[in-house]
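TL;DR need structure tokens for one chain.
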Amino acid sequence: MKYHLFFIFAVLILYSGVCAQEENQMLYSQNSPPNQNRSLAQKLKLSDEQRMVIQQKRLEMKKEIIPLSSDLIRLNMEKKLAISAKIPNRDQIMQIVQEMSETHKKIEITRIDHQLEIRSMLSDEQKLIFDQFMLSSFREKKSFYQQDPRLQRKRQRFQTNRQTPFF
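>> reply
TL;DR here they are.
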């Protein structure tokens, strides 16, 4: 008898999870504006050739950035070690911070070069869409996530939980 109850309980839990996912997908597809859930690549309407070249350039950029980001992680660890030493050497810490800023600069230059290469491949109409995206604020770029009903419910739960004090 216990096994039958356990089996029925497990089936009910699985079924309720499937129903909840279907409901979320229906809300997600009905409430989102027509262009809101499209990525930048879809909005640009890239040809297959453009898409392939962009993927290659993106891989090249990532290959350049990976060693730089590893250096950045290493430098950050060195900085933490230098700060937590028995007798911290300010000159050594400042030298590490200077190296970190140079590495950040190299990463940013690599990203900007990549964006300029991509932009040079686009047609005039595509450049307008690309420029709009690049000039928009962070909040506008992420507005898709703000309009997702699943995240709105989580945000509402978080805000109601935040109102109760911890102490």
